[in-house]
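Hello,

Our lab assistant flagged a job as stuck in the queue for most of the afternoon. It eventually completed. Since we weren't sure the result was trustworthy after the delay, we are filing this so someone can double-check. Below is the sequence as submitted and the structure that was eventually returned. Let us know if re-running is recommended.
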Amino acid sequence: MGSNWKPVLFFCSMYKTPCRKLSGLVGLSVKQKLVQNVTRCNQTAQSLNHLHRIEPSSWLTYQHLSFLKRQYVAKSSCELHQHAAPKQALVLTIVDERDDRVERREHRIPTIDPVVTDVEAQPKISNLDPTTEDVAVQKASISSTVMTSDETPPLQVEMDEMTESHKERQWKQLKLDVSDLGDIYARLAKIRLTALVVATAAAGYAVAPVPFDPVVFFMSSLGTGLASCAANSINQYFEVPFDSNMNRTKNRPLVRGQISPLHAVSFALACGASGVTLLTLAVNPLTGFLGAFNIFLYTCCYTPLKRLSITNTWVGAVVGAIPPVMGWTAATGCLEPGALLLAGFLYSWQFPHFNALSWNLREDYSRGGYRMMSVTHPGMCRRVALRHSLGLIGLSVLAPMVDVTTWTFPAISLPINLYISYLAFRFYRKADRSSARKLFFCSLWHLPMLLLLVLTCKKPHRDQEDAAHPPAALPLTL
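-- returned structure --
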């Protein structure tokens, strides 16, 4: 037997030293890991102990155990409880059944004890002759105890209130009242924006170098307003799902259900057809074509581009620049450099106006999913506003060169143009809500003032010049 064990012993002796080295390396690495974790474990224990001493009655969360994907909390009883990660759901109350103190502190309302004492004290005075007042007091106390026993628990009352508030916040269709139809149509057509469009078209008609015709002026203004109402109504019809996510547009008629989509589309078709027909037949075909083209550009190009690219701002500026051209063509029947100059004024003015407006509505536009410069390219938003504010100065200098105004117009319009450029520069430098708000409110009065100055400094047309300077009398000839 001894001879049989010799090869085995020899084989073990060959690997004795390497095995010891391997076990030593493993032990050393384990020891280093333990030494490294001792400090962190001590800090964790100290921090938890410190939090537990500060507020022993509240729940403590063990954030260092988050790698287990659970939330461990402890109470003053030093018990460790495991809870799953909380779901994002509506939780009314959290009551720990093992500790009545939490329930009493959160939901229980202290009852009035004197009522019970009166009932208990009743047998003590039963031997005496009860007076009428005592009987009334006893009946009132008994009825109050019955009422308190029949009252709804506070927790149930709280749940009912939360259910009612949740129902109030839910979407519900409102009934259409005929008396409110005018206000609904006004909000569907964006009446203030339509008024601005009509005003710019009227300014284009007034600046045109032709005699003033009140009938054509009224027809062109009415047709332009109807076209604007149609474009705005179709725009709201397309953007109902997105307007419902924005605070600025969540109260629109289609979003609130005050009017049906079919009713809104019918209103838009009626306005668009009547407006384009009126411009074509009562004014001239060129103005009617511009009105139809502007409806198409606003509803089929600008509206879908708002969710695709920031080029929607430039397309929208073209839409806003067409109404004064329509006023000019309604008066003259043709496109001239003066009409393009007025379009340039409106085109450049819209960038400081809209960029300043959209800057303070970035959260709303982002929530609605609209790709605006203020949301995706904030630096470009400020630069474009400043660039086009300065461009208004150059356009004012160009006005007398195309025989629209006299040379006094660039001089008297320089202060307001410099002021809006200064506010645009502040908006470019600071990029805060205050500078954006000041630039926006300045743009509201800048455009009417600029158009009024253009009308004041309008260059007289040829008929007025001929009437002011009659030709000299021809000499008599034999």
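-- support follow-up --
The delay was a queue issue, not a problem with the job. The result is valid. The chain has three domains: 34-110, 112-146, 179-460. The first strand starts at residue 60 and ends at 61.
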